[in-house]
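Attaching the record inline, Q. Sequence:
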Amino acid sequence: QSLLTIIRHWHQHPAQFHLNTSSGSEAMKGVLLLLCEAGLIPNATLWQTQPVTNHATHLRTSRLQATLLSEETSLELLRPLAEKMRFAELARECQHIKSVTLCADRSRTAGLMTEIFQAYHFWDAMQYAEASRLLRSLCYKLSDIPEAEIPAEILSKQFLFLVRLLTNDEMYNLDYLTELAFSCERCFLRGDYQGTFLRFHHFYEGICIYLLKQACQEPAASLHDLEQAALALTEMPGRDFSLFWNVHLESRLLGDRVPAGHIIAALHEFYQRSLLGVGMQPLLETESADALMVVQELARYFLPASEYPLQRDTLDQLLPFLQQPGVTAALTF
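Structure, as predicted:
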């Protein structure tokens, strides 16, 4: 009752209030912010003082804004974006969360997640050196955070994979072919069909070269000659290339619209008629799905199983790192 009396007095004799929330808990900050936004504390400005990153003795004062709904909206967008592997958008949403959250722990975590998704964006653009540089820096940062054990382990494996990729002088090695296969899937998921076909083209050329080298044969100059040479292989370590087309892929297609023996020719034709080749025709989802299917089946059939470190379930393991209880959770009475 005394608080309501004071509030009524404030409305009768409005003053300018500046409230320092630095010593309060996250719930206290949230309550004060809600009271101000509801107009119960008129003409009020909330301020918060925090140590500057890497300079514990320096303090930075900032104004608190009413951003609870904005923060929750961004948090809800993360999982749909992760399912599509849209790393640039994920980085942007995490940066937004960092700038608006009232929770100091979440602000720090959102900043780290922004850098992680920026590294993945470089990775997806095949800028592997820049991605590995960011991941190495993040590994050092996460090593000082006890609750970041799982993200630190994930990033460490990813950094080591990129180091192998960058230091292997042989162009079409197993790591590079595996990278092309999963990169093709990521492009398809986010609707980048030109990227899907470009990676399909490089992967198919690469698998032909890889199989010929496995059989101790010299790769041919053109893709057509490469394909014919690979199809002619009958004795080689592992599985036979012609058997893949005549038996394995035919059984996977199950009488689909394109016979297994013709699907590569059809996909090459789509490639040539698009902007990637010499034409102007758009690449659509249907033919891109066929290209991805061929890449995935070739990878399963010829490449050894490996724990590729950047898949959709990788993001499922990382996102909970950001889902710490924030102010909204603290205000659930």
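Confidence is low (pLDDT under 50) at residues 325-333. The longest strand covers residues 44-52.

More tomorrow.
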